[in-house]
Task: inverse folding
């Protein structure tokens, strides 16, 4: 872990609602993602994992602590530098029907990502769509997000993220929006991309079996704090923290033995 | 765009009001370009009842009412459309910026818009016009000043809703600039209710111009429906046609723009089911 791509260093975020008690969504959390590494951030809803994801993406400023992307602290960058630096990480959200502008066809959605890059063209867009399994890609270019299925939309979102040549993909429950039958395909697509491009992943999920299938390392989050972290296999087969044990015990036991 | 027309045409009131407005625009253009037509032309027959010579009758100076009503479309459309355009432009810019960036900007824009909304608009318009002069430019300026707050409020509300959607965060991660996100991603998604409200402003503007003219707060040289009503009311019992035809023109035009606003709103709403 000599050269991590992302370091979250003692990050905290408290939400203040008018009239209610302040919510400490993220409390002094530190987390590191190495280059090409896949880290699963697991925890139940309300544990603060999505907030941490938004902080990592630079969409939410932490109250304290630093977000360091490829050696540069995001908080220290000028707005222009920040904009140029952040494209190294791309999000994949839960529901592509809200993460893609409904008024733009696939062609424009892809062009938005490709513009300013060499070789931006319909051919390049179609190639990327082909890569994520929307083939022939050319046929999908004129389609609007509501004209394709949920699984295809998520593939389109993945293609757009890939267009930026990211070195880190932060995926927040990327499978929850898809039908069960599609989930396996999307998961395999993400695994293929990892193998092909050496992209690092921060995978935010409540699903332990996805974490086990996908991740090199697991961080378990509860009430805004990371309670346990370590190699996926070790943490999930021999959890030490009671909350991790609960999460693992809640998974149905129909699974085949975990793969290497 | 094709979708828009399908929905729009499915809405019958939309066809009717759209057709009427198109016809009105044609009339206004024709009276502007047709050579040798003079609505100020005085004939011997003063206050003549409608006949084949003068279908809408003549006024107290013997001017043809039909020609006057047709000419009046120029003023009503010019005032209505330019005022609505100005109010929409101003309202969208201020409302979008306020909704997107929030903070002191939002506070300032909203307080200023409230100032205009709590004052009785017609009285304010009458005061401003009588102080600043009665030209059409002043009338348009007053309507813009009175109408932008409603556009700004609608825009602000839509922008505040849309800026929280995930696709905005997604383009932010593509490295897009904030103002560009607002202009190309957020505002285009807010356009439906704003355009509908903007069309309604046309109707309000036409009515306000007519009201001001009716009260004599417009230049006497300008041929407008409100001005004709003002002249006609003195002869209401002798020459009904002097009031009825301009009144009807105002009524139909305001109605048409109101219906058009509704039709545009539902045609642009993706949730509208085409019948």
Result:
């Amino acid at each position: 872990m000599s050269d991590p791509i992302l370091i979250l260093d003692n990050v905290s975020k408290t939400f203040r609602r008018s009239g209610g008690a302040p919510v400490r969504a993220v409390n002094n959390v530190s987390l590191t993602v190495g280059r090409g590494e896949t880290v699963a951030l697991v925890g139940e809803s309300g544990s603060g994992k999505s907030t941490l994801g938004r902080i990592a993406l630079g969409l939410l400023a932490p109250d304290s602590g630093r977000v360091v992307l490829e050696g540069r602290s995001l908080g220290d960058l000028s707005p222009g530098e920040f904009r140029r630096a952040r494209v190294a990480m791309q999000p994949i959200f839960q529901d592509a029907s809200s993460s893609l502008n409904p008024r733009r066809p696939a062609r424009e959605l892809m062009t938005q990502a490709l513009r300013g890059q060499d070789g931006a063209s319909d051919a390049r867009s179609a190639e990327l769509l082909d890569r994520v399994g929307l083939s022939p890609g050319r046929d999908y270019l004129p389609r609007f997000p509501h004209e394709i299925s949920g699984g295809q939309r998520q593939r389109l979102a993945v293609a757009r993220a890939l267009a930026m040549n990211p070195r880190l993909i932060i995926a927040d429950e990327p499978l929850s929006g898809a039908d069960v039958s599609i989930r396996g395909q999307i998961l395999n697509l993400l695994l293929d991309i990892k193998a092909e491009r050496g992209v690092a992943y921060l995978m935010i999920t409540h699903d332990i079996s996805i974490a086990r299938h996908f991740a090199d390392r697991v961080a378990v989050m509860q009430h805004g704090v990371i309670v346990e972290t370590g190699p996926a296999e070790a943490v999930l087969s021999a959890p030490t923290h009671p909350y991790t044990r609960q999460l693992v015990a809640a998974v149905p036991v129909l699974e085949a033995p975990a793969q290497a | 765009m094709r979708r828009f027309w399908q929905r729009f045409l499915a809405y019958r009131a939309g066809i009717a009001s759209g057709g009427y407005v198109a016809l009105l625009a044609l009339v206004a253009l024709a009276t502007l370009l047709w050579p040798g037509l003079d609505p100020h032309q005085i004939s011997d027959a003063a206050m003549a009842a409608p006949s084949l010579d003068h279908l809408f009758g003549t006024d107290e100076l013997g001017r043809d009412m039909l020609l006057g009503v047709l000419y009046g479309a120029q003023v009503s459309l010019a005032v209505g459309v330019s005022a609505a355009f100005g109010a929409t432009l101003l309202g969208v810019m201020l409302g979008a910026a306020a909704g997107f960036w929030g903070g002191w900007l939002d506070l300032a824009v909203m307080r200023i818009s409230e100032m205009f909304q709590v004052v009785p608009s017609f009285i304010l318009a009458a005061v401003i016009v009588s102080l600043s002069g009665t030209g059409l430019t002043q009338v348009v300026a007053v309507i813009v000043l009175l109408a932008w707050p409603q556009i700004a409020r609608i825009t602000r509300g839509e922008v505040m809703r849309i800026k929280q959607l995930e696709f905005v965060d997604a383009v932010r991660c593509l490295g897009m600039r904030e103002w560009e996100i607002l202009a190309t991603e957020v505002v285009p998604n807010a356009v439906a209710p704003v355009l509908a409200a903007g069309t309604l402003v046309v109707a309000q503007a036409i009515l306000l111009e007519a009201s001001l003219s009716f009260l004599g707060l417009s230049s006497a040289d300008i041929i407008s429906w409100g001005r004709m009503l003002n002249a006609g009311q003195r002869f209401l019992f002798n020459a009904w046609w002097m009031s009825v035809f301009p009144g009807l023109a105002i009524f139909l035009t305001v109605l048409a723009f109101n219906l058009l606003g509704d039709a545009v709103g539902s045609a642009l709403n993706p949730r509208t089911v085409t019948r």
About this structure: The interface with chain B takes residues 54, 57-59, 83-84, 86-87, 89-91, 93, 95, 98-103, 112-113, 157, 160, 164 of chain A (CB under 8 Å). Strands of chain A lie at 6-15, 23-33, 38-42, 64-69, 72-73, 89-92, 168-172, 200-205, 217-222, 225-231.
